[in-house]
TrEMBL record:
Superkingdom field: Eukaryota
UniProtKB keywords: Glycolate pathway, NAD, NADP, Oxidoreductase, Photorespiration
NADP as UniProt keyword: yes
GO terms, molecular function: glyoxylate reductase (NADPH) activity; hydroxypyruvate reductase [NAD(P)H] activity; NAD binding
Keyword hit for Iron-sulfur: no
Family: Belongs to the D-isomer specific 2-hydroxyacid dehydrogenase family. GyaR subfamily.
Gene3D superfamilies: NAD(P)-binding Rossmann-like Domain
Stated name of the protein: D-isomer specific 2-hydroxyacid dehydrogenase, catalytic domain-containing protein
GO CC annotation: cytosol
D-isomer specific 2-hydroxyacid dehydrogenase NAD-binding domain residues: 109-281
D-isomer specific 2-hydroxyacid dehydrogenase catalytic domain span: 19-312
Length: 313
């Protein structure tokens, strides 16, 4: 397999990089100064692309690689891959489901607690010596709050299970109602938001779900409501979110993802009802290694003519 050309779209994980280097002829796209000249030179040898949540395989890259046979994503989200084009050209696609579910769901609960109990702000209170001048203000209880989940897939379900342990009533919105699920279904995100204290974005990013959190949803969630986003930045109309937070029309937000990562609106930096994370939902040593092993396992299976471990296309 050493002669098979594999293109890694951007830096993502050093263990993955080393393991790919051991097995394949690995090209690191981000180190290439002249991208189009590189693609012309290597278009007949690159048979696989490894992408992630930041860079994958868009139509332009797919068209530039006529020998491309598989895109293996180091992510569960597939929004950086032109799936329609892959299907059209018979290119296989894999992702990394399941292995990251616990971490992302854990982080969603962590964000809920951090926003409601002001964990980051009260940590800063201690560090800055303010405690010596008086107690920190009272915060909001998390247990028992109504949690509304947008997207009840693997991650949405794992968040629901965890929130149930905090006695939170769970409601959800999804493309279709899931009759086998005991949680209450709302047929619109606005209705779900109006009946939630905490609204969590846990669906895939598609054209349908882009800006699923808009002004109407934010207004329905209201000045006591909290938005948690562990999905993708473009799920949220970010300028609308920022103005609602700045004007106090929304109670708070816990955000792991942003519309133009790694750019984060500076208006959020001074707000204590907001917790900002640098897209670390799956960012533990254990999970990133399991994701890397899945990427490698899928590529090896493909090139050895075995069934893919986690096929999408
Ligand atoms: C990663 C992700 O942050 O799985 C996803 O969809 O967003 C993440 O797990 C990313 O792909 C790591 O490089």
């Amino acid at each position: 397999m050493e002669s098979i050309g594999v293109l890694m779209a951007c830096p993502m994980n050093s263990y993955l990089e080393h393991e790919l280097e051991k097995r394949f002829n690995l090209h690191k796209f981000w180190t290439v100064p002249e991208k189009s000249a590189f693609l012309t030179t290597h278009k007949n040898s690159i048979r696989a692309v490894v992408g992630n949540a930041f860079a994958g395989a868009d139509a332009e890259l797919i068209e530039a690689l006529p020998k491309l046979e598989i895109v293996a994503s180091f992510s569960v989200g597939l929004d950086k891959i032109d799936l329609a084009k892959c299907k059209e050209k018979g290119i296989r696609v894999t992702n990394t489901p399941d292995v990251l579910t616990d971490d992302v769901a854990d982080l969603a609960i962590g964000l809920m607690l951090a926003v409601l109990r002001r964990l980051c702000e009260s940590d800063r209170y201690v560090r800055s010596g303010k405690w010596k001048k008086g107690d920190y203000k009272l915060t909001s209880k998390f247990s028992g709050k109504r949690v509304g989940i947008i997207g009840l897939g693997r991650i949405g379900m794992a968040i629901a299970k965890r929130a149930e342990a905090f006695s939170c009533p769970i409601n959800y919105f999804a493309r279709t109602e899931k009759p086998e699920i005991k949680y209450k279904y709302y047929p619109s995100v606005v209705e779900l938001a109006a009946n939630s204290d905490i609204l969590v974005v846990a669906c895939a990013l598609t054209e349908e779900t882009r800006h699923i959190i808009n002004r109407e949803v934010i207004d329905a969630l209201g000045p006591k409501g909290v938005l948690i986003n562990i999905g993708r930045g473009p799920h949220v109309d970010e300028p609308e979110l920022v103005s609602a937070l700045v004007e106090g029309r929304l109670g708070g937000a816990g955000l792991d993802v942003f519309e133009h990562e790694p750019q984060v609106p500076e208006e959020l930096f001074g707000l204590e009802n907001v917790v900002l994370l640098p897209h670390v939902g799956s960012g533990t040593i254990e999970t990133r290694q399991a994701m890397a092993d899945l990427v490698i396992g899928n590529l090896e299976a493909y090139f050895l003519n075995k069934p893919l471990l986690t096929p999408v296309v």
